Amino acid sequence: xxxxxxxxxxxxxxxxxxxxxxxxxxxxxxxxxxxxxxxxxxxxxxxxxxxxxxxxxxxxxxxxxxxxxxxxxxxxxxxxxxxxxxxxxxxxxxxxxxxxxxxxxxxxxxxxxxxxxxxxxxxxxxxxxxxxxxxxxxxxxxxxxxxxxxxxxxxxxxxxxxxxxxxxxxxxxxxxxxxxxxxxxxxxxxxxxxxxxxxxxxxxxxxxxxxxxxxxxxxxxxxxxxxxxxxxxxxxxxxxxxxxxxxx
Length: 248
Description:
Strand order of the largest sheet: 6-7-8-3-9-10
CATH topology: Rossmann fold
Shape: globular
CATH superfamily: P-loop containing nucleotide triphosphate hydrolases
CATH architecture: 3-Layer(aba) Sandwich
Strand content: 25-35%
Oligomer: single chain
Number of domains: 1
CATH class: Alpha Beta
Mean pLDDT: 89
């Protein structure tokens, strides 16, 4: 289990400090597929990077009861749209490199996903299209052999058909002990893929609900999100009215 307690993160600049996360506490058991949602700047990426130990913060993050360190960091993998691969290496060279450094590397899964995305194994990854780079980033995260797979907007640049098919493939290949934490804005696309939704707003958790609970309440994910954020359906009409008034 990933357990986060009272996690607070500030970013500092010459003009002062800005809070990115405020007193966040969260438990993420093994075997869950969790959707992490929130507007731009809500703190989603910051939270994932704190879990990985890439940022300094106040509070605590433990992995199966232990602090995240060199001894257990291999249990975490990360797919980010910022990319973490070696651009001059080919996909095949990446697989060989990962196999050397991660004993649990899933070679068979790697080759199956490469075939699924129709990615060239012998071309330098830096020469791929943006969508292909993102696909390869996801493949590495899924094949590292980690128990906890963190994904930050991994499907940017991919067409809707590739994304839809990939959700189905992912559900089919994940094992019981594998946990996925997926940060994305594609609410309606992942609704039938995730088992739990966690909502962030201005660095705080404002909603945490399983899809089973939503179903029992007769709500879909978008309704839950809109209610939690107190979305105003008339905001567009108001804005157009104000703009129209100024143009007259």
